[in-house]
Write the structure tokens for this entry.
Amino acid sequence: MITVQRLDTPDQVTEKATVALIDGSITWTYGLQEQAEWGFTLPTPAGESPTFFVMRQDGVPYYYVHFHGVEFRSASANVQVGFSRTWYVLHVLGVRDVISGAAAGSLHRDYRPGDIAIIDDFIDLSHHRPRSILTEIWERPPYIGATFAEPTCPELRAILISLANERFRRGHVHERAVLVEEEGHRFSTPAEARMQKLIGGDLIAHHQASEAIYARELGIHYTALNYVTNIAEGLEPNMAWVPPEEGRAAGALCVEIMLEGVARAARRTSTCTACPRSGDDPAGIALGSVLMKPVYH
Ligand SMILES: [Zn+2]
């Protein structure tokens, strides 16, 4: 049984990691947290954080957060703030890199069930999630315009692309994709899927546009891997799901790719200029002054 400690301050986290893995449904069936050394929660201005599991890959420590701590069976009060709590803690822990994973539906005929994609752009169609982690958590943040010319981290993307090409089935790895984020907790209707396709989406999933936004605002390098499980409703005669056994085997490979990605990310010397503008001033924001007054409205 893993011990989960309720801590008061980030300096009580004895195992410092520079990388985190946050995942929706890919690691769901693999019980990754059961391999954790221990777990902790921290207070945030939006409430107690989800559990951060302390894990190790090839000797490299990392944090693992599952579904932003959201328990979907009783998510009505939690789903809006789970994301803010997760990203606040990633920030106060000084995490440099985040790798995210999720299952996705396909909106484009080139992206078939059973394929994987490393997204390079997104369209945010969520309605209730905070538009900005800064305005959600901190009182009077300075006006900033975090830039999204390159919406995900090119260095971390390159790591996942390289691993995916090494380990996944040839011809089934997409090095680019535009991800549409809808909040769920349901699939799109046929009319919604046609709209999402028409505006330029390749894939649809529920987390990663918000994550990419918060990462960029906080100066955290971020990349995401998506496993295509189905064709979005109504775009083809049948919804075409990956057969369960194939899905399990491919999911295990995705977990392997993400975990190796965590270790490679931690070991790299970053020269990325797309994410933080400078090490001392992530995303060009005067976070030092903002951090004085975290508040949740
Ligand atoms: Zn970067």
Notes: Confidence is low (pLDDT under 50) at residues 279-284, 288-292. Residues 153, 155, 221, 272, 274-275 surround zinc ion (CB under 6 Å). Helices lie at 79-92, 133-137, 154-167, 190-198, 208-218, 244-267, 287-290.
